[in-house]
Amino acid sequence: MGSPDFLFEGPAGGRLTVVLAHGAGAPMDSPFMNEFAAGLAARGLRVARFEFPYMAARRAGGPRRGPNPPAVLETAWLDAIDALGGGDRVVAGGKSMGGRIASMVADRAGMRGLLCLGYPFHPPGRPQQTRTAHLATLATPTLIVQGERDALGTRAEVEGYALSGRITVRWLEDGDHSFKPRVRSGHTQAAHMERALGWSAEFVASLAGP
Fold this sequence. Notes:
Layout: E1 7-9, E2 17-21, H1 31-42, E3 46-50, H2 53-59, H3 70-83, E4 90-95, H4 97-109, E5 113-117, E6 142-147, H5 155-158, E7 167-172, H6 189-208
Parallel strand pairs: 2-3, 2-4, 4-5, 5-6, 6-7
Antiparallel strand pairs: 1-3
Helix pairs in contact: 1-6, 3-4
């Protein structure tokens, strides 16, 4: 498949690169992805974004098709990691599906860490169809940032799953799949994004070593 086209932000030359992939329906430069990448870069981190083949084809004017088969998505992730120097040089993850596919290759690729922003623990409205089997044995240090009322995995649901001890889940109060809370909660999406960015930057720093 070959190396994807990356969108880079932040200082070059760091020990680690944070590699982010998009969710199923929005590209690598969606408002959420733009804000998150810029926020990490502003905290001194090197950030790379890329698109899966189906989304890259859309950008090039191709038909609007859904995600590629899982094997193709996984290969795209492995190619991206290889292009950036290998798993020991990256913390990989992303929004929703992007983070989920990264989690499926994390141990195989030897990633330094995994960062998932709104993990899709199950499809919308189908909580019985969990996507968690591989998470029970995941060996890669992992941070999942999740809204408490995420329709793809609420706090009540996730706390009942058997997850690896290498996984830390940080909760955004009343947040949805894009971290947005309801007005009556007293929280704001902007504040939740700041919390998510702070947790993520701390997580990456903890993996960078001396």
